[in-house]
Each structure stands twice: as C-alpha cells, then as structure tokens.
Amino acid sequence: PREIFLKDYKMPDYYFDSVDLSFLLGEEKTIVSSKIIVSPRIEGNSHPLVLDGRDVKLLSVKVDDKDLKEEDFHLDSHHLTLTRPPSGTFTLEIVTEICPQNNTSLEGLYKSSGNFCTQCEAEGFRKITFFQDRPDVMAIYTCRIEADKTLYPVLLSNGNLIEQGDLEGGKHYALWKDPFKKPSYLFALVAGQLESRDDTFITSSGREVSLRIWTPAQDLPKTAHAMYSLKAAMKWDEEVFGLEYDLDLFNIVAVPDFNMGAMENKSLNIFNSKLVLASPETATDGDYAAILGVIGHEYFHNWTGNRVTCRDWFQLSLKEGLTVFRDQEFSSDMGSRTVKRIADVSRLRNFQFPQDAGPMAHPIRPHSYIKMDNFYTVTVYEKGAEVVRMYKTLLESSGFRKGMDLYFKRHDGQAVTCEDFFAAMRDANDADLSNFLLWYSQAGTPNVKVVSSYNSEAMTFSLKFSQGVPATPGQHVKEPMFIPVAVGLLTSSGEDIPITSVYHDGTLETVMENGQPVFTTILKVNKKEDEFVFANIAERPIPSLLRGFSAPIRLDSDLTDEDLFSLLAHDSDGFNRWEAGQILSRKLMLSLVADFQQSNPLVLNPKFVEGLRTIIRDPSLDKEFIAKAVTLPGEGEIMDLMEVADPDAVHAVRSFIRKELALQLKEEFLSTVINNRSSEPYTFDHENLARRALKNVALAYLASLGDEELTNLALDEYKSATNMTDQVAALAAIAQNPGLAREEVLLDFYQKWSDDFLVVNKWLSLQAMSDIPGNVANVQNLLKHPSFDLRNPNKVYALVGGFCASPVNFHAKDGSGYKFLGDIVLQLDKLNPQVASRMVSAFSRWRRFDDYRQALAKEQLEKILAANGLSENVYEIASKSLA
Ligand code: B3K
Ligand code: ZN
Q: Rounded to two decimals, what is the model's pTM?
C-alpha cells in the first residue's frame, strides 16, 4: 500500500470543463458512458492524462471521436493513462461496464434494497468510470439515466430535470443537468421504487424551492420530522449566515444500506435511513435530535463544501470541521445551547481525546494517508469544529460572520485550502491570529496547567498558564499553541465579579465593552508560560476557567474541591457549572479506582451526593441540564486518564457510585420519575424532551439497584410508554441486571418490533453494549439471528460496534472479546473494507492496557495483518496500531 503526502500535492495537468454521463442500468450489469471536454491547464502541455479507475471494465475509449490506438493508452488495475493526449482542448469518450449488484463495499454505484444509489466521497467515483477523481477537478455535469420503468420508476441525479420520457421495451429515461461546477465526489444517482413527501420553501429573495424526501412508500409517514428539520435548516442558514439555497429543487433520499450517516451530493442528498425516518413510536428523542443535526449538516454543506470545496482530501476539515460547527450552532439555536455544548464536549472527550493520544493521532489536517476513508475521523470533524469555534470565540459573532462573508466572496466556485479559510478570517478582521495555524498541523491534545494566586494588597489576581502538547506519531517536538481561554471570576458567594483590566506582557489592557466591565474575558494564551493578572479584584475570587470549553485542551487547575462545589452550585456559565461537577466526578472516580485496585473498601464522599441532591432539587434548572449533571463521566473517559487502563476497576467503580447514588437519592429519583410522566401525545420540543431525559436518567439509576420494587417500576414504565424514548429507556433500565425480567422484556420488545429494522437495531445494540458478564456468547448468537446481516453497516455498528463499546466484555481477560472482533474484521473486510476498518479501530488503543491484555490484542492485530488480500483500509489502521 502506498502512502500519500500533503507535501506532494500538484495541480492537475488537465481540467474537465464538462462531463456528460449516461447510465444504462441493468440487472446483470450497468453500462456507463462519459463524454468529457478536457483542457490542459497549461496550453501546449504534453503530460500524460492519468485517470483513476477501480473494478471497472473498459469497453471503449475515444479521443475526438476516434478510437484510441493501443499504443496511445495504458491500462492497469488502478488507472487508465492516455500517454499522448492531443495538445489543446479535446473530447474524451469512455465506455465502461460495472456490476452494482455485486458491489458490497457500498461505494460507487450499488444496490440497496433493490434500488440503485451512489456514494462517491471520497474516491468512489472511480468505481463508476475512469476519471480524474480528485476534488480540484470541477466540471458541469449532465446525467442521462435509462432503466426499466416498472422496477425503477424514479430516476434522480444532481441539478434540474431537463427531459424525461418512455422508451421501447418497458424502459424510460431521465436527463439531469447540474448548472454548478462540482468535483466528482458530489455526483449522485438514484433509481428505484420510491415515493416522496413534497413541500416548498420560499427563500429570503423569493425563490420557490421544491423539497422532496424520497423513501419506499410505507415509510413516507416517518419523514415529517426530516422535512421540518430541512426547512428549519434552510431558514437558519439565511438568518445566521445570509446563505440562500441556489437551485429550484432539493432532494433527499433515504437508503437502508449506507456506510456513513449521509452525503451532501449537490441537490441530491443521500441519507442512511436511520437519519431520516422517525415517528414517536419508533424513534427516540436522541434519534430526533440526530436527524435535525444531520439534515442540517448536509444542507449546510451546500455552501461549506459544495459551493466552496476542498482542493485535496487533506483539507477535509475545511468543509467538515466548518460544517460540524454550523450544525452544532443550528442545534443549539433550536434547543438548549448549554446542553448541546455539554453533549458535544462529552463526545470530544470520550472519542477524540483518546484518538489524539493513540497511534492514529493526526492533526485536523493530516500530513499523509494510505486510505482517505480512514480520515473521516472525530479529529477531522469534531476537533475541526472546535478549531472553527475558536475563531468565533476570538473574533466574536460579528467578526466571525465577516470572515465567512469574505471566504465566500473570495472562493465561491473554487477548491481551496485551510489557509484560505484562515486568511479570510484574519483579513476580514485585521486580526492578529499569530500561530493559530498550528491547530491545523500539530496533533495531540494540549495539556494546560493553571496556577492562581491572589494579592490582597495590590488587589490583583494572577493566572499562570503553562502548556505542552504531547508527542504523537511522527511529531516528537511541538510548539506552543494559541489557546483562547474564556475566564470569569466568582465571589465566594457565587456572584460574577466585574472585570475591567488585565495585565499581560507588561501592559495593562482594558477589557470593557461599551464602557462597561465584562464578566467573561478571553485570555489569549500563546506561550509555553504565560501570565495574566486581573486588576481591581477586591477579594480572592474563584476562577471559572475555560468557560464554554473555549479550546479543545485538557486543563489542570489548582481549584480545590470547595471551589468546584461552589462553581457547581453557582457558576453563571452553564457549561462550567456542569464541568465543575464532572471534574469532581473524575477525581472521585479515579481515587475510588485506586481504592478498588488496592482492595480498599469503596466509600462515596457525602459532599458529592449532597452536591447532586441540590442540583436535582433545584426547580430553577433546566431538566435536560440536570439529567446531564447527574450523569457520570463515561468509562472510556476515565480509562483515558489512567496510566494503565483498567476496565474492570473503572466499571466496578462506576457501577458502585451509580448504585450508591440510587440508594442515597432514592426519594429524589422516585419523585423525579413520578413527576415527569406525561399522558400528552409525544412532541419533540425542548420542554418535553428535557422532561423525558430527566425521568429516564432517574429511572436508570433506580433500576440499577435491581430490587423487585424498582424493577417493577421500570416494567410499569415500559408497559405504559407511548413513545420509543420512554419505551427503550425503560427496557435499558431493566436490562442492566441479568435475570428473568430482562429476558422477558427483551423478548417482548423484539416481538413487538421485529418488522422495523431500525428499532431492531436498538434491540441489537442494547444487548451488545451490555456489561453483564460473559456477554460475548450472547453477541455471538445474535450474529446468527435472522435480524442480523453482516452486509448492512447499521447492523454491524449496532452489534459489533456496540459490543466493542462495552469495556468489561470487549476487554475480557480471557481474550474472548478480542478474538470475536478479530474474526469479524476478517469476514467484514471481504465485504466492506470501510466498515471493517471502522471496527478494527477498536483495537487501536491496545497499548493502554496491562501486559496480559496487550499480548492478546496484539495477537489479533497480527492475525489480521497476516491475512491474504487485506484491504488498504484495514491494513492502514492495523499496521499503524502495531507500529
Ligand atoms: N461528507 C460525507 C462523508 C462521506 C465519507 C465517505 N467515506 C458526510 C458528511 O460529513 O456530511
Ligand atoms: Zn459533512
């Protein structure tokens, strides 16, 4: 396998001005013809034209209407090379044959539930025809689709429908033209038996846009929330960024077999069904929220990704980090900003921080890759979004908007780089962003330590920061980063202290806004050691550090437990109020883990219990916030903080605290369950989803005790549930403990929902993630269950992915979990390398565990690497994990 480097980027020698595609969709094979107008980038250049192609059979190739002579081209398994193309602009016509029916990789053209669909990002277009399959080659496309009319009544592609009609032999055709230039990765085609939910949206300039969401007929009733989400996203992008939709038609198609969540193909978004279909009976609040976010995300790509795209795949975060940031902001504005921030930061800590500390660590703009698919990561996406968020923190909303406006003004219709985005932000604001670009090139999560001191005579309060970025593969020496730290100061009774001026680098900076003191200020930490001194501070304050999680770092402060309890009770920054509780929880869990390892008795700090009791009882707090605040950090997050990760100890401690809280806060949890029931029909609005979230967290605590009374309470909740949120929450609560109740309710749930594959996936994943001892055998059996299918990614993510997310069973000391995954990865790799590679990633942190487990995991990685015909996808993850 060959590694590709950012530093080797070269502009293409040829551009494609227009691409006319024609598809004859058949049951055995599909014939693809393409007619491309090719121009040399530099007039008179005589470079060969290298086209990418994979698993495509070449039927013919013509240049300017003449068959190309054998000596003028060269064909190998990955390329078609025109060795002596004409010197000026010319017409290239290629005919290929492909077999979508046998394409289990789900990239290129494939079949899902009898329908044809495509997935081209990143490099799937080359599985359709020979092409310069790179994002800096942008062209105007037409697409003619011909197929059997009964089997494939609906024929869709990008842009506008120009022509359609019937043909002989029961066939029909459609001709689509996309007026916008695009790279091949945004091409899409869908053909099948689908029906649409139709609606319209009037843009701010008065253009009427037809909106259509396509699914099999029986699923149409479940598309209402997706349509609502789409319209909300269109309106939000106009209001917040002044960005309007640019065509008269916007299509979304839902397909059950899809590697990722969704794809932003120009005007023809293709979605994994689970991110479109929802009804109160079958989808949870979590599903509703995910649909809102992802429908928004793909729609927002129309500007950040499609109108302005990436020069090369190393720049992926240019569109993904930015678009994730945009979808996060959208969801915040549609719900609770604080709770959304908490959820996003938890995700970052649980998944991205571990990646940044492991063998696959890479900067948000990687320096190299073997297989690009492996770099659609939490680092490129979620850390990328944090980097975009820091611009907004530094430049404020209005400055950020100016930067966005300039970015579109400069680059609409272009394929650009992360520096271009940076330059637009800087230039629009005349800002000094000094070494901010290091966020794009340095991997690893910065460690920042802060020491505070108060000087009562001078009435000053000092914060001394020191920072360091850990070494990561290929990057041993790091430079100090530019870190915006949002800080507020609290009095001992919890009030915000007005901030007027801060000394830094020997100068006194006034931080007033409109002549008024501020309550939060942004400290720009950008040296290895950096000190900031607040002036006019009349008492020793409690600092509220990194408000809103203003930078993706690990912060270590000298706050005492007393300070943290005070922040938990009073901080005016909702995020930091939650964070204070989390810091306390992390400390508590780590110290109990040490006790557990030394066989000391486990005792829960009563102050911690009282802190949570106050939160639960506080009627002024948002219920969803309370639900988050009483949820302990995940086991992965704690293992990530340990010298040697000990899954058994972490699991035992987390279970102990949960049970202890359930016992000591039983009255509070019981009344929470009782007071938050509702007989009203389901609505997905903040008040109701917050109510359900809190009730179900309380129920889970209570049911963790496993006694009969509380199990019966959960059973009653299960039986009386009128929506999936409550039903599956009650099921999960009961299923925490092995026993008859668990078995019965799991069986009942399956029998109720066996016809709904999305609900069945919840049933699979709930069992897969279970921490009941020896669960690997149960998961093995589920592999053989009629509802499971190794070719469907959602099912693999639910069952195999779910299993690997359960630390105790995946990391079982007998190696059964590792062996299970090793075997499955090899089977999966033959069908779908992208999915196999996502699964093998569960091994990548193997060095974090004890020697015994290390040996077992290593054995599996070696077994995988030794297999014949291993995909590049799995090879890259497995070999880098072992390196
Ligand atoms: N851009 C797509 C990702 C496709 C990845 C294919 N390996 C989804 C998204 O981020 O919107
Ligand atoms: Zn995206």
A: 0.99
DSSP-assigned states of every residue in 833-860? HHHHHHHHGGGTTGGGS-HHHHHHHHHH
Structure tokens at 216: 């099999």
Q: Which residues of the chain fall short of a pLDDT of 50? A: none
Q: Which ligand is nearest to the CA of 122?
A: 1
CA distance to 174, 192, 240, 316, per residue, from 167 (Å)? 11, 17, 47, 42
Catalytic one of 93, 107, 298, 876: 298
Nearest residue to 406 via CA among 382, 426, 384, 435? 426
Instruction: Give every CB contact of residue 712 below 8 A, 6+ residues apart in sequence.
Output: none
| Distance in angstroms (rounded) separating the CA atoms of residues 721 and 74 | 64
* Nearest by Cα to 124 from 156, 100, 91: 100
Identify residue 869 by its one-letter amino acid code.
G
Residue 320 CA: nearest ligand 1 atom is 10
- Out of 125, 264, 834, give the residue to mutate to test ligand 1, the one with the largest number of ligand atoms within 8 Å of its CB: 264
For the CA atoms of 462, 553, 527, 463, what is the dihedral angle to 10 degrees? 0
Between the CA of 306 and the centroid of ligand 1 the distance, in Å, is 12
Residues with CB under 6 A from ligand 1: 121-122, 260, 262-264, 297-298, 301, 320, 373, 376
Give me ligand 2 centre to Cα 16, in Å.
25
| Nearest listed ligand to the Cα of residue 325 | 2
* Separation between Cα atoms, residue 878 and residue 825, nearest integer Å: 11
Determine the pLDDT at residue 434.
86
* Residue carrying structure tokens 């025809």: 129
**According to the model, what pLDDT value does residue 46 have?**
83
For residue 599 the two structure tokens come to 């066989």
